[in-house]
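So, could you explain the following?
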Amino acid sequence: MAATGPRMALAALAALGATAVFTAPANAAHYENDISVSSEAHIAPDGTIHLSGEYRCTAPSPSGAVQIKATIEQEDVRLGIGGGDAQCDGAVHVWSAHGTLRLTPTVHAGGALAKAELQEIRFGSGLLPRSVDTVAQDARQVEVIDHR
């Protein structure tokens, strides 16, 4: 049985509405999850770069864990500096990440783009992740301060 014009229009409208409801902006907080990046990054005398901020998250699914991913981008260099595991109890926590500039020595004092993400990692029956979803993110221009 073929669908009539009004039925098809209603089905298309319902599909469009569902897409709008389930599609959030890329930088929006997901449920009760949020993360921010501080306005400064610091290069320590030993050549490590430090970035920090705050986050808040709710408990992940029973088969998952939440981790923080942080990166610094400056000119044509992108440096992942980790971030570690998140404690998801609904409270605000400070996060801090550091990475070495050994392989990216051109990172220097001045402006850079810093990004932080809360990523929920869900595991299946094995050791490999079944999915990795970004549940909150922040990206902002920061000032890199060199203490070397």
Remarks:
- Residues 26-146 form a domain with the Immunoglobulin-like fold (CATH 2.60.40.2550).
- Residues 5-22 form the longest helix (18 residues).
- Residues 5-30 have pLDDT under 50 and may be disordered.
